[in-house]
Amino acid sequence: MHAGSVDEVRRSWWVSVLFGLIGIVFGLMAMAKPFQALVAMAWAFGIFALADGIASLLALFDRRVAIPKPWLLLYAIASIAFGVIAVGNPKATAGILLLMLAFWLIVAGVFRIIFAIRVRKEIVGEWLIALSGVLAIVLGMLFLRNPAIGLFTTAIWIGAGAWRTG
Length: 166
Hints:
The protein is mostly helical. It has seven helices and no strands. Helix content is 85%, strand content 0%.
């Protein structure tokens, strides 16, 4: 650690406290109003995507950028497109993200089960990996069956995590 680093942390202790308080307040609000919290998060993701897309467009004119220009342009366009959609319709964005989560849970669950079967002779407790796969599949199917409950559950867990982290 550099000599001035401890002094800098001491001078900016309030930033950590502020982030912690924001995490606690956000967590409590997300648990109290989960649907509104998810819409707000989708909107915030859109703002971040727009900012990232604009920064990537500007980086196209910087010769020091190591990423090939066509890939950077594609990334910028995709970021801006997602940002415009998310800011323009955050409710739909939250719903689509939940569907993506549901499909990911199902695919991840299948892969966990396959992995558990393949390593069953090499590790102890492989059944826990398989169980986590089954639970992921069940959760993904529940999200697909009733997206409103899935949105609610996701918001509650995000809120609890933010509250705990704060």
